[in-house]
Specification:
This protein is an alpha/beta fold and 551 residues long. The protein has three domains: 79 residues; 200 residues, P-loop containing nucleotide triphosphate hydrolases (Rossmann fold, 3-Layer(aba) Sandwich); 258 residues, no CATH class. The strands form two sheets. A seven-stranded mixed beta sheet has the order 3-2-4-1-5-6-7, sandwiched between helices. A two-stranded antiparallel ribbon has the order 8-9. Strand 2, helix 5 and strand 3 form a beta-alpha-beta unit. Helix 2 packs antiparallel against helix 3, helix 17 packs antiparallel against helix 20 and helix 19 runs antiparallel to helix 20. The longest helix is centred in the last third of the chain and has 73 residues. It starts with a helix and ends with a helix. The N terminus is likely disordered.
C-alpha cells in the first residue's frame, strides 16, 4: 500500500499539469451542465472522473491492451509477448467476457487491477512464473491485457472491450490480413480515437500468410487507412505470432514506451483534450462577452416607462405644487385647494406608514403597462440577450435568451412594488414654505384685527358713542392699514411664492424620478440582468476550464 501511494504521489507530482487539465475539464463540464447537449457534458464528466481515478493509482505500471477481431491472432500475440501459454488460441475461452491480465512486477498493481475490473482468477503475475534469475526485468511495470474479441456475437464482449479500451494507457490493435479494412474496427474504435495516436500501435499479424511481394503494399494500405481515420504516423508492425516474426520488435517498442513513463500521461492528455474539444464545439470559442451599458440603460428606460414613472413623476410635481401652494397661498383662498384630489393619493402613493401597514404590501393605482410598453420591454430584453449571445454557440445563446425571460412573468408585480416602496417625499413641506405659512397667518391675523377694529369703530359711531382716538400712520388709520395691508401683502406673498413653488415642484420631481429609476433599475437587474450575468459567469467558467484543459 505504501509503495502504491508513493507511486501515485510521483505521478501527480510529475504530471501536475495533467491534474490541472483534468480539473479544468471537470469545472468546464459542471458549468456547462444544462446549457449544452447532456451527452457531451456527460462524456466530459466521465472522462474527467476516469482521468482523476487513474492519477490516484500506480505510476509505476503501464496498462497495455491487446485488442482485435476474432481470428486476428490477438491471443497468440499475447502468448508470444508473455512467453507463456496464458490465453487459449483458436478456441472459445472458458470465460470470454473477461480480459486476461499478465503483470510484470505485481507490487503496487493490486489497486490498478481492481480499478480495471480484472477478476483475480484472470490475473497472472509474470515474475511468479519464472525463477529469480530468469526474471523479465525489461517488461517490469507492464500490465498486459488480452481483451475479448471486439466483433464477438456476445454483447458482454463488446461492452468489456469498450470499457477497457477507455481505461488502458496504451492500445495495441492486432489486425488480420483478411479483415484489416473491416469498417467495424475503423468506425467503432479507430476513428473515435483519432487524438490518441501517441498511445497506439497497430500489428498486422499472420504476415506469414501473405506472399512476400505483397507484404509491403499491404502495410502501406494499412497506413493509408489509419491516416484516413485521423491516425497518421501510428507505427504499423508486421508480425507472425505463430513463427515469432516481429514479436521482439513489438516487445521492444512496448518496453521503450513503458520505460519513458509517458504512456499514462499521453493517454490522459488525449482523453482530456478530445473531450474538451468536443465540449468546446458545443460551447463556442468566443471570449466571454460583457453587458453593454447602453443596452442595460435602454432596458431600464423601458422598465421605467412600463412602471409608469413619468406618470408618477408628474403626480409628484403636481402634488408638491398643490401642497406648497396650500401652505404658502393666501389662507382664505388656499383652503379651497383642499377640495381638489391629491394626484399622489389618487395613485395610492401617499398611504402613509399606517396606511401601508394596514394594506400590507401596498398596491398602487398606476396604470398597467400597455401593449406597446410590453412590446418595448420584450424588444429590449431580446436585444440585450442577442448582444450577449454573439460569438456563443447556438445552444448557449439559447440558454442566455431563456435566462433573460425566466423571471419576466411576475414583472408587473415587481415594478408596482418598487414604485410603492419608493420614498417620494410628498409630505415634507420645504422649510421656507413653513416660514411663509406662519407669515401668511400673521398677515391674515393682522387683517382680522384691522377688520375687527374698524367694526368696533363703526359700531360706536352707530351707537353715537364718543369716538376714541384712532392712531394713524401718515394719512392712513392703523386699522385700515392692518386690514388692507394684511390682505394685499398676503396676496402678493402668495403670488411671489408661486414661482418658488414651481422651482420646488420641479426639484422634487427630478429627485423622485431618480429614486424611482434607481428602484426600477434594481428590478431590471434582478429580473433580467442577473440571470444573464449568471449565464455569462458560467460561460466564463467553461471557457476558463477549457483553456486549462487544452493548454
Amino acid at each position: 500500500m505504501t509503495s502504491l501511494l508513493e507511486g501515485a504521489k510521483k505521478l501527480v507530482t510529475r504530471s501536475s499539469d495533467i491534474g490541472a487539465r483534468v480539473d479544468g475539464l471537470e469545472r468546464a463540464a459542471a458549468a456547462a451542465r444544462g446549457r449544452v447537449d447532456d451527452a457531451v457534458v456527460d462524456d466530459a464528466t466521465v472522462v474527467a472522473a476516469r482521468a482523476a481515478g487513474r492519477l490516484k493509482l500506480s505510476a509505476d505500471h503501464t496498462v497495455v491492451a491487446l485488442a482485435g477481431a476474432t481470428g486476428s491472432g490477438k491471443s497468440s500475440t499475447f502468448n508470444a509477448l508473455t512467453e507463456l501459454e496464458l490465453a487459449a488460441v483458436g478456441v472459445r475461452r472458458p470465460t470470454t467476457s473477461w480480459a486476461t491480465a499478465c503483470v510484470w512486477g505485481k507490487e503496487g498493481a493490486e489497486e490498478l487491477l481492481e480499478w480495471l475490473g480484472i477478476p483475480a482468477r484472470h490475473q497472472v503475475t509474470r515474475d511468479s512464473m519464472l525463477s529469480k534469475g530468469d526474471e523479465d526485468v525489461e517488461m517490469r511495470g507492464v500490465v498486459l491485457l488480452d481483451l475479448p474479441d471486439h466483433d464477438s456475437t456476445e454483447v458482454s464482449h463488446h461492452l468489456e472491450v469498450e470499457r477497457l479500451v477507455q481505461l488502458a494507457d496504451m492500445l495495441v490493435w492486432v489486425l488480420d490480413p483478411q479483415k484489416y479494412a473491416d469498417a467495424a474496427i475503423h468506425d467503432r474504435f479507430l476513428k473515435p480515437l483519432a487524438g490518441h495516436r501517441d498511445v497506439m500501435l497497430v500489428v498486422l499479424n499472420h504476415i506469414d500468410t501473405v506472399p512476400e511481394d505483397r507484404r509491403q503494399s499491404m502495410l502501406d494500405d494499412v497506413r493509408r487507412l489509419l491516416e484516413a481515420d485521423g491516425l497518421p504516423g501510428v507505427p504499423v508492425l508486421p508480425v507472425s505470432a505463430r513463427h515469432g516474426w516481429g514479436v521482439d520488435e513489438l516487445r521492444s517498442l512496448i518496453v521503450k514506451r513503458v520505460a519513458e513513463k509517458k504512456a499514462t500521461r499521453a493517454r490522459l492528455e488525449a482523453d482530456v483534450r478530445t473531450a474538451a474539444l468536443r465540449l468546446q464545439e458545443e460551447v463556442g470559442s468566443g471570449k466571454p462577452p460583457t453587458l453593454s451599458t447602453a443596452r442595460v440603460a435602454a432596458l431600464d428606460d423601458a422598465f421605467a416607462d412600463a412602471a409608469g414613472v413619468p406618470i408618477v413623476v408628474k403626480a409628484v410635481a403636481d402634488s408638491t405644487r398643490m401642497r406648497a401652494n396650500r401652505a404658502t397661498g393666501w389662507p382664505v383662498t388656499a383652503w379651497f385647494s383642499r377640495l381638489r384630489p391629491d394626484p399622489l393619493k389618487r395613485l395610492h402613493l401617499d398611504l402613509g406608514a399606517s396606511g401601508k401597514e394596514l394594506a400590507g404590501t401596498a398596491r398602487t393605482s398606476v396604470p398597467q403597462a400597455t401593449g406597446v410598453q410590453r412590446a418595448r420591454i420584450d424588444s429590449e430584453v431580446r436585444a440585450l440577450a442577442d448582444q450577449v449571445g454573439e460569438g456563443m454557440s447556438p445552444s448557449w445563446a439559447s440558454a442566455v435568451r431563456a435566462a433573460s425571460v425566466s423571471r419576466l412573468p411576475d414583472l408587473n408585480d415587481r415594478l408596482d412594488r418598487a414604485v410603492a416602496a419608493t420614498d417620494l417625499g410628498p409630505t415634507r413641506i420645504p422649510v421656507w414654505a413653513g416660514l411663509v405659512r406662519v407669515l401668511q397667518y400673521l398677515l391674515i391675523l393682522s387683517a382680522l384685527v384691522g377688520a375687527g377694529w374698524l367694526a368696533l369703530l363703526a359700531l360706536g359711531s352707530y351707537a353715537r358713542l364718543p369716538e376714541p382716538p384712532t392712531p394713524e400712520v401718515g394719512a392712513f388709520p392703523v386699522p385700515t392699514l392692518l386690514l388692507l395691508g394684511g390682505i394685499l401683502l398676503g396676496l402678493l406673498l402668495a403670488l411671489v411664492c408661486r414661482w418658488l413653488v414651481s422651482l420646488t415642484a420641479r426639484s422634487r420631481a427630478r429627485a423622485a424620478d431618480k429614486r424611482l429609476r434607481d428602484a426600477i433599475s434594481e428590478v431590471s437587474a434582478e429580473v433580467v440582468v442577473e440571470p444573464i450575468q449568471a449565464e455569462l459567469a458560467s460561460y466564463a467558467a467553461v471557457r476558463d476550464g477549457l483553456s486549462a484543459a487544452l493548454k
